[in-house]
């Protein structure tokens, strides 16, 4: 990609550049060059990604209680996944004519508020009602953007893993706890940027290590503590003396561990096996610029969490996509623009929650089965579609809408429930109003009851604690333990956490993004 021009963002006033690839792609499709910066475009995509909140609500079809990524007061109907994918539901029933006396976004917003959405996004989520943006997962709980995993709790971007708790960005791991950016690890606790290691704790940038504790930057080592090698017998005795079953002891050891990390001053490379790339956490990719969490992809610009994709830019959460632009949460999609939550589509523009395949769709919402040649959920013949679409584009050009992403006020989720709040935080109702976002200021459930005293060691805890409402030691937010979660802690000899799922995730995120 070659930079060919500079522009000024109409929202922030900052300068940004346009590449030859962007210009060629957009000109070919008759889309104007963006007038907002990459950072603003990223914010737009992030504002449509809920990666950490689930709610109990009523299914608007069956009237039964369900778990959903959408709040109970969402401004549109929400169906259980079973009801939404059933033969009774038909997105075409909400079709309407295009009204040239109104703006496109006005009409699309009306459609958004009318058409039901599935309660959660994902496929093959067995016994995992609290999983969102998942695929092929079994018996997982509060795990997001994860697939091919089983018995994982409180995870983010967990791939091909088993029996892992409180982990972020891990692949092919088992029996791991509080790990960040790790791969092919077994029985590792508090591991960071470490790979192919086992039976260890508090590792940072370690590879192929076994039976190590508090180590930084080691490779192919065994029986090491604080980067010092011991005999097997010496190692085991010293580990016993550390009392790793005590929360108080662990907290003191972690202070020493992070001091060692700082002392070593290692520069962790987040771009591996890649060519001509800029950004962080890029692996086996080429020509990816200003991107993060990219795997096996080529020619990606301004991408977040992109896998097995190519020639795609300004996207968040896409896999197996090609020629996709300014879109969020897309899978197996080709030559599509301005979309959210779409899968297996070709030539889809300004569409939301389109599944089951389909091609040549414009301004459509909520298809659970394959549909072709539709505009605002109304079916047309191939000839009618291609005759009407240019007229709509011309109308949108006259209103200044063509080439713009959905306004933040039309996002699927309240801003505070999305990763936009994590990366581009809003602190007040006034700021939210100024930016025009779908806001709903966060009101976390807290407990006013006297918090129970959580024992220092796991052997002092029995299953009755799962019936208690616990209080986050930092935020006072209420949280509870799951029985399978408690069983994991007992198996691993780990004390019960005194922080809620949200606080624990925030702490891991800070470690992940401090690179």
Describe the 3D structure.
With 515 residues, this protein is α/β, with parallel strands linked by helices. The chain has a domain at 3-36. The protein has a 15-stranded mixed β-sheet that branches. Strands 7-8-9-10-11-12 form a six-stranded parallel β-sheet. The longest helix is centred in the middle third of the chain and has 18 residues, at 247-264. It is globular and about 80 Å long.
Q: What is this entry, summarized?
A:
The protein is an alpha/beta fold.
Largest sheet, in brief, is: 15 strands, mixed
Radius of gyration: 24 Å
Beta-strand content bin:
25-35%
What portion of residues is helical? 10-25%
Specify the structural class: alpha/beta
Topology, number of strands = 34
**End-to-end Cα distance:** 25 Å
Query: What is the mean pLDDT?
Result: 94
Count the DSSP helices: 11
Shape, per Cα inertia axes: globular
Low-pLDDT parts are: none
């Amino acid at each position: 990609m070659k930079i060919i021009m500079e522009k000024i963002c109409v929202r922030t006033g900052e300068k940004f550049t346009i590449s030859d690839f962007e210009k060629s792609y957009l000109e070919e499709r008759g889309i104007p060059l963006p007038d907002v910066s990459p950072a603003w475009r990223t914010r737009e995509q992030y504002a449509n990604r809920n990666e950490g909140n689930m709610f109990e609500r009523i299914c608007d079809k069956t009237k039964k209680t369900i778990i959903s990524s959408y709040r109970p007061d969402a401004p549109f109907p929400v169906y259980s996944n079973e009801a939404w994918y059933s033969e009774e539901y038909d997105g075409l029933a909400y079709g309407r004519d295009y009204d040239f006396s109104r703006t496109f976004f006005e009409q699309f917003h009306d459609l958004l508020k009318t058409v039901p959405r599935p309660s959660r996004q994902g496929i093959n989520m067995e016994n995992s009602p609290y999983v969102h943006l998942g695929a092929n997962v079994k018996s997982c709980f509060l795990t997001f953007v994860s697939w091919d995993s089983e018995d994982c709790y409180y995870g983010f971007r967990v791939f091909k893993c088993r029996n892992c708790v409180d982990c972020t960005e891990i692949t092919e791991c088992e029996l791991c706890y509080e790990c960040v950016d790790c791969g092919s690890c077994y029985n590792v606790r508090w591991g960071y940027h470490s790979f192919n290691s086992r039976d260890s704790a508090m590792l940072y940038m370690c590879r192929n290590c076994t039976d190590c504790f508090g180590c930084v930057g080691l490779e192919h080592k065994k029986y090491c503590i604080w980067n010092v090698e011991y005999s097997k017998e010496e190692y085991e005795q010293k580990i016993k003396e550390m009392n790793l079953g005590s929360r108080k002891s662990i907290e003191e050891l972690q202070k020493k561990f992070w001091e060692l990390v700082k002392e070593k001053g290692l520069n962790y490379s987040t771009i591996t096996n890649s060519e001509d790339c800029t950004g962080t956490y890029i692996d086996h990719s080429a020509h990816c610029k200003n991107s993060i969490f990219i795997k096996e992809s080529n020619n990606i610009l301004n991408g977040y969490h992109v896998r097995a994709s190519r020639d795609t830019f300004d996207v968040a959460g896409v896999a197996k996509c090609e020629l996709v632009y300014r879109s969020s949460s897309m899978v197996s999609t080709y030559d599509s623009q301005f979309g959210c939550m779409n899968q297996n589509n070709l030539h889809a523009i300004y569409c939301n929650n389109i599944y089951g395949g389909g091609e040549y769709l414009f301004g459509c919402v909520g298809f659970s089965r394959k549909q072709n040649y539709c505009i605002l959920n109304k079916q047309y013949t191939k000839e009618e579609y291609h005759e009407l679409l240019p007229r709509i584009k011309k109308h949108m050009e006259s209103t200044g809408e063509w080439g713009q992403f959905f306004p933040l006020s039309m996002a699927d989720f309240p801003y505070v429930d999305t990763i936009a709040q994590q990366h581009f935080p809003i602190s007040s109702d006034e700021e939210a109003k100024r930016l025009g976002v779908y806001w709903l200021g966060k009101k976390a459930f807290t407990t006013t009851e006297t918090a129970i005293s959580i024992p220092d060691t796991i052997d002092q805890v029995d299953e009755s604690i799962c019936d208690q409402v616990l209080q986050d030691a930092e935020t006072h937010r209420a949280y509870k333990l799951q029985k399978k979660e408690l069983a994991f802690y007992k198996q691993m000899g780990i004390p019960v956490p005194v922080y809620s799922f949200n606080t624990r995730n925030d702490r891991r995120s800070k470690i992940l993004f401090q690179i």
